[in-house]
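Figure caption, in words: inputs first, then the predicted bound structure.
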Amino acid sequence: MFDVIIIGAGIIGCATAYQLSQFKLKVLLLDKENDVSLGASCANTAIIHGGYDPDPATLMGKYNVKGAKRCIELVDALDIKFKKSGTLIIALAENDLKTLDKYYNRGLLNGVEGMAMLDGEEARKREPNLSEAVIGALWVPESGVINPWEFTIAMAEVAVREGVKLELNQKVVDIEKNTDHYLVKTETNQFRTKYVVNAAGVYSDKIHNMVAEPAFTIKPTRGQYFLLDRSAGETIKTIIFPCATEFTKGILVSPTIHDNILVGPDAEVISDPEDTSTTGEALAFIAKQARKSVPCLDFRNNIRNYSGIRANSDYNDFFIKISTPKFLDLAAIKSPGLTCAPIIAEEGIKLLAEEGLELNKKANWDGTRKIIRFKEIPKAERADFIEKNPEYGRIICRCEHITEGEIIAAIRRGLPIFSLDAVKRRAGSGLGRCQGGFCGPRVQEIIARETGISPLDILLNKTGSYILVDRTKNTEK
Ligand SMILES: Cc1cc2nc3c(=O)[nH]c(=O)nc-3n(C[C@H](O)[C@H](O)[C@H](O)COP(=O)(O)OP(=O)(O)OC[C@H]3O[C@@H](n4cnc5c(N)ncnc54)[C@H](O)[C@@H]3O)c2cc1C
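Bound structure (flavin-adenine dinucleotide present):
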């Protein structure tokens, strides 16, 4: 019998597991995929939002500024990266100036600090590549970019190290409500628990409906992106947003934590929440819109396109409630869900405590994590370091300068590894210009050696994405 089962290992489930791991509780984190952070928490815009945009009457408005502060505290504790780039929301037409006023006033109500209204010239002084058509901008300094999957994985790694059990490849298909417990049924297993947390992202309405009356419907909304090579990274240093529409915050141009440029996303309601394809039509629209803000963008620098699926819903806010006794919904977590994740987890745990969950702290809980990034070791110290740790002397990913030591450390940090992309998300190998074309086979060999999984069974990413079929030559003869 578990005390708490969390369904969904995106940033919301992992933040909840991380925070619950400080208490003397038996916690199980379940996900249908073969890694944590394979839903929206992997494919999004990666911004820790300033908080100028959400309606102050919503939970999104109430949590944004507090959430951003908590994220930045966690950056140090979890040894992840954050770049405080600030945000410029630009006006391209007279009407947009009214929208900027609205954002400014909302920002004040939401507690955003340091905002300033700029005219077009002042905005271009900050970002010389902004369009001449920009007539004004709202400057929001307290915002920046993070690596969303690194954030999610880091919390999962600490949670597992501190006693949370993680079960992957476990799709929840039904939940049975009994007098003193829930029986959570997956395709291959069943687990008993006193409390359930629903953090299932685009499927959170389906999980909710297994135990409670329907209360909201998810409208999966796809957003597509361009990722431009680091050689374009000097184009802008600040997150550039146009004024938002009803469905999206608009097509932005943003620096990334790895010094690339990200452009997107559009917003398209789709019927299949698994459809993360990209389309020429949407990408052409994105490129056209983005050039209105930053005309010199050169899309020949594109190294990757991808899309993420938002858990937008007809509820129009985060759905955070005890929906039936001892069942907590952390559902319909759309943007700014990444920014708000630590607060959503904290508020959720308070609701569980009100339902009777006993929160007794462990004496020796450690919520921190430290990792080695070889390229950050000062040059003068590298030779000594390699002498003691020779595996850090072998570069595997040449685009990103990732060593064998970092890959081995990532594989050994406690979460199961089944794919090249799982290593990419942890160590950064394959993130560069060649997108893993050169280092992929070597990473595959290291995974096979470290985990004992046959190279034939090592995947590119999700279940079924096999890379190798068989030997091309039978060398054993
Ligand atoms: C295009 C886009 C841009 C965004 N940009 C930003 C931004 O810049 N800043 C910001 O703050 N927020 C942003 N967001 C929002 C943010 O990414 C999400 O709010 C956040 O990632 C939601 O996390 P989650 O854990 O609820 O969902 P997810 O990350 O989707 O996790 C849900 C998990 O549940 C699992 N699951 C689902 N069903 C089952 C089942 N039946 N059994 C077991 N497991 C199941 C899934 O496999 C998945 O791992 C953006 C979102 C998108 C899509």
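The longest helix spans residues 59-78.
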